[in-house]
């Protein structure tokens, strides 16, 4: 075994978890993994300005292995996703996305990860698909509001949620979060949750 492999296998196993709100359950994201340290953010994934993400990036060392439930938990932006993964792998840190069953490592390593070119292609393709799906959610939400307005649903009433909150509601629902928890997180009634989802 080479020295580099020894460093890799003796590094820390680190988990990164992100949930969209303080009420969303993060317990199952890395369930079953034995980790040395976990960094958890309760914030949007629209950018990388998250306290625990930055703490994780400062903490990792060569030979460490970072586990993330899925790509969108690390970032919802393709550009940010690629930059974070490249930053980590350049430092000799392996990154593994459990849901997608993908592992990325520094070019030339022997840990079984994807090659640099293939890894970059996978990141771009899957990240682009994620961005496309979120764009569709926003488009459906805008169309739903337009239909609701044309049907007089909003007539004489001020919407309870703004556009960004409605998108957040739809993303939480798509992730399988219970409606009662969505209602609690957004401080609206469960009936309102169903009403907004009706116009997806």
Per-chain topology:
Blueprint: H1 3-9, E1 13-19, E2 37-42, H2 51-59, E3 65-68, H3 71-74, H4 78-90, E4 94-97, E5 102-104, H5 116-150, H6 163-174, H7 179-186, H8 190-198
Parallel strand pairs: 1-2, 1-3, 3-4
Antiparallel strand pairs: 4-5
Helix pairs in contact: 5-6, 7-8
Question: Which structural traits does this protein have?
Answer:
single chain, 200 residues, alpha/beta, Rossmann fold, 2 domains, 5-stranded mixed β-sheet, 8 helices, 48% helix, elongated
Question: Treating each run of at least 4 consecutive H or I residues as one helix, how many helices?
Answer: 8
Query: Any low-confidence stretches, pLDDT <50, length ≥5?
Result: 1-9
Number of domains: 2
What CATH first level of the largest domain would be assigned?
Alpha Beta
For the sheet with most strands, the description reads: 5 strands, mixed
Q: Average pLDDT across residues?
A: 78
CATH superfamily of the largest domain: Resolvase, N-terminal catalytic domain
Major beta sheet, strand line-up: 2-1-3-4-5
How would you classify the helix and strand content by structural class?
A: alpha/beta
How many β strands by DSSP? 5
Helix content: 40-55%
Order of helices and strands: HEEHEHHEEHHHH
CATH topology of the largest domain: Rossmann fold
- Cα-atom radius of gyration: 20 Å
